[in-house]
Design goal:
By secondary structure, the protein is α/β, with parallel strands linked by helices. Helices cover about 35% and strands about 20% of the residues. The protein contains seven helices and eight strands, in the order H-H-E-E-E-H-E-H-E-H-E-E-H-E-H. It has an eight-stranded mixed beta sheet, with helices on both faces. The radius of gyration is 20 Å and the shape is globular. The C terminus is likely disordered.
């Protein structure tokens, strides 16, 4: 009888530990940055961009018929917080598939781009994201260069070699105090020689999205609207300037 009770206790302990770990994980992931009112407003369609909620997230369908960006959100950020930036980008000529990630952590949805590339008929696909989302997008691109035209990294860095055929744009704010500058510097060796790396003067980490201030971030010296406008300009300008580079 005593042996039977001892065996039951031996099993109860690891189950309790597992239960506590699962609970801690859910508590951690449920504390996240929420989209603000401006972000929610950007989910409305207008004359230029049709915004549609989908099974994977959101589609920002603008004038482009050939180019689209698959966008992975930053860690613990509500995906709709990026609606103003992506609505603007779609309106200027690059459609966007905004991906909702499991637990709001992109490494749980690294391969979600596969379904989108198979679903839509765009001839030129880009993949990108913000912070952890950007790092995971770069990871995907490193293994799928034949399906992609380029990569867009916002306050993010690559951890694997990106093929020289890819058009790469990397942007970060001068006041960003969240981005690991050491890893950013180390990650430069993984970029193609023709990659466009640019600093948005006065920008910070959080203002690529609309989710308020982020813990540990620097104070921005320009508005989120201006930072996002400069971001869109840089993405499209670098994409055009990259024409004629390897992979064209």
């Amino acid at each position: 009888m005593k042996k039977h009770l001892l065996k039951k206790r031996i099993w109860i302990i690891p189950l309790c530990v597992l239960g506590i770990l699962v609970l801690c994980f859910f508590l951690y992931t449920e504390q996240y940055y929420h989209a603000d009112l401006l972000a929610r407003a950007a989910l409305e369609s207008d004359e230029t961009v049709q915004v549609t909620k989908t099974d994977y997230g959101w589609l920002f369908d603008g004038p482009s018929e050939h180019e689209a960006l698959i966008f992975y959100p930053g860690a613990k950020v509500e995906e709709t917080a990026y609606a103003p930036l992506l609505h603007l980008l779609a309106g200027e000529g690059m459609d966007v598939c905004l991906v909702k990630m499991p637990f709001r952590l992109a490494f749980f949805g690294l391969g979600k781009a596969d379904d989108l590339i198979a679903r839509y008929g765009y001839s030129s696909w880009y993949i990108g994201g913000h912070s952890l989302g950007g790092a995971m997008a770069a990871n995907y691109a490193a293994n799928h260069e034949k399906q992609l035209t380029g990569v867009v990294l916002l306050a993010a860095y690559a951890t694997k070699k990106l093929d020289d055929s890819l058009k790469v744009t990397l942007l970060y704010g001068s006041e960003d105090q969240v981005l690991n500058r050491t890893k950013l510097k180390e990650g430069e060796r993984f970029l193609p020689d023709h990659a466009a790396v640019q600093v948005i003067e006065g920008g910070n980490h959080a203002q690529f999205g609309n989710y308020g201030e982020q813990k540990g971030d620097g104070k921005a010296l320009l508005s989120a609207e201006e930072q996002q406008r400069l971001t869109v300009e840089s993405i499209l300008q670098n994409q055009e300037q990259a024409s004629g580079q390897p992979g064209e």
